[in-house]
Amino acid sequence: LKRFNRIAIIGVGLIGGSLGLAIRKKGLAKEVVGVCRTKRSLQLAKKMKAIDRGTLSASHAVQGADLVILATPIRTISQLTRTLSDTFQPGAIITDVASTKADLVRAVEKFLPKHVTFVGSHPMAGREVGGVSYATPTLFEGHVCFMTPHKKTSQSAFKRLRQFWRMLGSKVTVVSPQRHDQLTASFSHLPHLVAALLVLHGEKIELSGTGFRDMTRIASSDPRLWQDVVESNQKEILKSLSRFQKRLNHMAKLLKKRKMQAIQHTLRKAKERRRRLVK
Amino acid sequence: LKRFNRIAIIGVGLIGGSLGLAIRKKGLAKEVVGVCRTKRSLQLAKKMKAIDRGTLSASHAVQGADLVILATPIRTISQLTRTLSDTFQPGAIITDVASTKADLVRAVEKFLPKHVTFVGSHPMAGREVGGVSYATPTLFEGHVCFMTPHKKTSQSAFKRLRQFWRMLGSKVTVVSPQRHDQLTASFSHLPHLVAALLVLHGEKIELSGTGFRDMTRIASSDPRLWQDVVESNQKEILKSLSRFQKRLNHMAKLLKKRKMQAIQHTLRKAKERRRRLVK
């Protein structure tokens, strides 16, 4: 990988901070500049050595940056792109780490100048906790990172960014923005809503076992961040939910009619299919 | 705790084996006799020191036992009780570790002689893997163990068994067999079905992140064991499922109408409620 001169990370939270740590550890840039919302988190990010230099001003940070990583909550990204559009260095690669892509790519492309190139990224690495204090340089290792190049993405920028993610230990998977949103609706966004509903559904959940605990861990995530995810992928999540409802309706029928063999068959298929998750 | 003379564990799998290890480690019995289905697992159980003595005959094992723990799959328990009914030592305490209780207690009581007493137990400790090779003496530590005394349970037997579970590190919770089945339907059995359906629902799940992995881990459990659980608690699971469907239907409406504030409110309530699970 050709080393970046300056990488600007806008939003040094769990993901942004882990990126900074990993970039610095692997020497992927001469300098990492971080943007935080508060002086306190800037200081923490610097103390943790997640960034070389910090600022509260995104415009300031992107000056001279040949890679800009937008690691803020989804809803702020398009506005941020608009604000920064005159400041990006010609030839800069712009990416993000947001959980949804189709709407985002459309919005970002509206504001981007022609002399930069955007390609969406979504590292499938996160936790139910947030903030730079939880950041770790190994966050991405062994995990999938989606990349969603679209027709305006330059091939050279895509290749360089792909190499960047690979250097961080990610398994890069390339899909279209639309397909990304379908997939993540089915195995991330819908399950997230289901986990929240299970927590509200369970009686006396303090008596439950580790299965329930593990199953609902993601329901402890930040509700505002997830509201954004749900809002920006509403259509696909709704489609996914409606398919899932059909599965539940079918299960209810099997249960009602005591079709135990069919239920066992379903459990067996699920166990079999889940082997795909075991590396 | 007054030490037991001989504890018979019928079924030395993950739970039975862990019981044996814990009982021997804590010295809760002079002798632990284990019953396995195969000579191979008997040998393994002895090699692991989960039992002092092993046999393939349950009748043989319960002779002289003042505590009998039925740790076989649910469907075999009532038949087993019937078979052993003439062999139990007078005054023996009989318990089980099954995941459902109401039907089981009824069935067991039909066959039990008057000179023994039964009280149901359900340690909320388990894993998605089975077999004695995964057994560990700490399996019960810090976990809830339900006890479901019913009108025929003698108070002294109940108290002695409660002390036994506490010695193993369990947090004993006393509920009626019926209430047990309602609670576990809501936070264990229904979520189990949901996890299986999520695995079948997700597209390209091999690309998913740790959230989905954790959420569906229980879908790797033994389908036959879970068929038994579902069958023996069919009514409560069906009621629970029907309530859960209403929650999903409501969520679908909120999504369709883009009621993002209401969705955030739901996520927030779930996050708040899940704090109960954090010790």
- Order of H and E elements of chain A: EHEHEHEHEHEEEHEHHHHH
Largest sheet of chain A: 6 strands, parallel
Span between termini of chain A? 27 Å
Strand content of chain A: 5-15%
The portion of residues assigned to helices of chain A is 40-55%
Question: Class by helix and strand content of chain A?
Answer: alpha/beta
Which segments of chain A are poorly predicted (pLDDT under 50) over 5 or more consecutive residues? none
Strands of the widest sheet of chain A, in order across it, are: 3-2-1-4-5-6
Strand runs of chain A, count: 9
Radius of gyration of chain A: 21 Å
| Number of helical stretches of at least 4 residues of chain A | 11
Mean pLDDT of chain A: 95
| Most extensive chain interface and residues per partner | A-B, 81 and 82 residues
Spatial shape of chain A: elongated
Oligomer: homodimer
Could you give the topology of this structure?
The structure is a homodimer of 279-residue chains.
Chain A: E1 4-10, H1 14-26, E2 29-35, H2 39-47, E3 53-55, H3 58-62, E4 67-70, H4 74-84, E5 93-96, H5 102-111, E6 117-118, E7 120-123, E8 144-148, H6 155-167, E9 171-174, H7 177-201, H8 210-215, H9 223-232, H10 234-256, H11 260-274
Parallel strand pairs in A: 1-2, 1-4, 2-3, 4-5, 5-6, 8-9
Antiparallel strand pairs in A: 7-8
Helix pairs in contact in A: 4-5, 7-10
